């Protein structure tokens, strides 16, 4: 059965709703920080401070930060001066206390009063006699209100009206994040990505956290700020974890990951946040043996008849087509660990590498080391040079060089090794036992198939001009 509200009750309900809406609209926005891979931190805060109309001086507890970066986010407020001393040592307190009176204990129950009149060296004036002494009259008993628990900043502001809070933005340093990926190979392959976050000296409660991936450059850091960050010292490590994955958006030419919940930073805090849900991933292994030609300039006949070992480099390629779960992921640069199962089904770490910042749809190629069961040896089998002399032009050298590459495979299955030659300038492959593939003006590849437990010999001849 419905019941109608009386006029008085309806009015009271409207008043309560208005108060609730007003409270929500005037609530201060949460503190938010953006962390960079480099250790830079951008902080945005709303400070509950009474700011009078006109010019005023306020003390802000911002911790250690770069004073040059301090600005206000309120259109009607301007910062006209900043005085920042990052040190909380007694020496720093004395610098801020010239002209102040201090009490010094005297046995048995007395005290003596003196005024600090100068430093370097310390000079004190006794209040009773007016005489000045070099050296401290005794141990200073500091009033609690003069000893800050954190660095303080004196700021001069000009405001167009009286306010009950002020929005500020500034940069600090020490906290950072890095992306790390785990790729599991095989038929049920998948990729996992996490962000490892270190708070460093940050001490902020209940903040929104964004992680910036990209290259924005860097301005020179003032030496005074660098020294202040060093003075912050090292901290003990804590650990924390949050659930959920960040949202990802493009801002300008960088990408921003926003954590799913707020976080309280404590000095030394370390935590790991998934960057995305585990995603299916299928890749292929590639094997590459490097060439014998220098990239630029001339080269000489090989003096030794012995075959030289050539490392066979291992890499994993992931195609990442657009419209697929893995292809649509935006990957911040970071380290990659690859795992595969042994015969008993145990996962083993088989390779590690790194990737750069990778947009959606771009292929991944992750170098992970060198092959164990696939080997290569190279020897130069022929070499000759001629000189091309053209009037009014520099003399050019034309070299013909032949090579033999012996590849062996100890695996139970056939493999393909790309024998690669990279060379700038004018050059070409004259002949080869395996057809060459010209990948670019500077790269030629010979894809050599090696049977299981077998050996394949590649021979080729190149013409090089310099």
Please characterize this protein's 3D structure.
It contains three helices and 33 strands. Among the domains are: 90-146; 284-319 and 363-465, no CATH class. Residues 10-25 and 222-239 have low confidence and may be disordered. It is mainly β. Strands 1, 2, 4, 11, 14, 16, 17 and 18 form an eight-stranded mixed β-sheet that branches. Strands 12, 13, 15, 19, 20, 24 and 25 form a seven-stranded mixed β-sheet that branches. It has a six-stranded mixed β-sheet with strand order 26-23-21-29-32-31, with no helix packed on it. The radius of gyration is 35 Å and the shape is elongated. 22% of the residues are buried.
Chain-averaged pLDDT: 87
Number of helices: 3
Strand content: over 45%
- Model regions low in confidence, pLDDT < 50 over at least 5 residues: 10-25, 222-239
Shape designation: elongated
What separation lies between the terminal Cα atoms? 99 Å
Largest sheet: 8 strands, mixed
User: Can you count the beta strands?
Assistant: 33
The helix fraction, in percent, is: under 10%
Tell me which oligomeric state these chains represent: single chain
Radius of gyration, in Å, reads: 35 Å
Structural class from helices and strands? mainly beta
């Amino acid at each position: 059965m419905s019941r109608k509200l009386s006029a008085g009750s309806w009015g009271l309900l409207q008043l309560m709703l208005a108060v609730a809406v007003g409270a929500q609209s005037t609530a201060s926005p949460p503190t938010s920080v953006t962390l960079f891979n480099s250790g830079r931190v951008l902080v945005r805060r709303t400070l509950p401070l009474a700011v009078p109309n006109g010019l005023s001086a306020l003390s802000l507890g911002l911790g250690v930060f770069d004073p040059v970066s301090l600005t206000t986010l309120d259109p009607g407020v301007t910062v006209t001066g900043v005085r920042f001393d990052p040190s909380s040592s007694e020496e720093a307190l004395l610098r801020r206390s010239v002209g102040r009176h201090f009490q010094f204990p005297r046995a048995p129950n007395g005290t003596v009063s003196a005024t600090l009149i100068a430093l370097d060296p310390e000079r004190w004036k006794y209040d009773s006699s007016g005489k000045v002494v070099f050296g401290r009259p005794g141990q200073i008993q500091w009033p609690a209100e003069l000893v800050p628990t954190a660095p303080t900043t004196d700021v001069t502001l000009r405001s167009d009206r009286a306010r009950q809070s002020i929005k500020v933005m500034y940069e600090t340093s020490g906290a950072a994040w890095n992306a790390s990926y785990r790729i599991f190979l095989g038929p049920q392959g998948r990729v996992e990505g996490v962000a490892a976050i270190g708070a460093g000296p940050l001490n902020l409660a209940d903040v929104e956290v964004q992680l910036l991936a990209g290259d924005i450059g860097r301005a020179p850091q003032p030496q005074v700020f660098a020294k202040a960050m060093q003075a912050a010292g090292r901290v003990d490590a804590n650990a924390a974890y949050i659930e959920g994955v960040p949202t990802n958006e493009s801002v300008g030419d960088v990408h921003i990951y926003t954590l799913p919940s707020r976080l309280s930073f404590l000095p030394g805090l370390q935590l790991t946040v998934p960057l995305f849900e585990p995603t299916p991933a299928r890749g292929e292994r590639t094997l590459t043996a490097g060439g014998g030609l220098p990239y630029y300039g001339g080269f000489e006949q090989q003096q030794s008849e012995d075959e030289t070992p050539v490392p066979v480099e291992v890499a994993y390629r992931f195609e990442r087509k657009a419209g697929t779960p893995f292809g649509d992921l935006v990957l911040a640069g970071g380290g990659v660990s690859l795992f595969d199962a042994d015969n008993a089904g145990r996962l083993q770490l088989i390779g590690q590498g790194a990737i750069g910042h990778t947009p959606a749809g771009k292929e991944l190629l992750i170098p992970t080391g060198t092959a164990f069961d696939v080997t290569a040896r190279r020897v130069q089998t022929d070499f000759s040079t001629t000189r091309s002399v053209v009037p009014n032009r520099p003399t050019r050298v034309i070299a013909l060089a032949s090579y033999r590459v012996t590849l062996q495979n100890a695996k139970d299955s056939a493999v393909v090794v790309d024998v690669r030659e990279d060379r700038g300038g004018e050059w070409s492959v004259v002949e080869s036992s395996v057809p060459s593939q010209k990948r670019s003006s500077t790269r030629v590849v010979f894809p050599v198939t090696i049977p299981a437990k077998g050996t394949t010999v590649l021979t080729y001849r190149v013409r090089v001009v310099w």
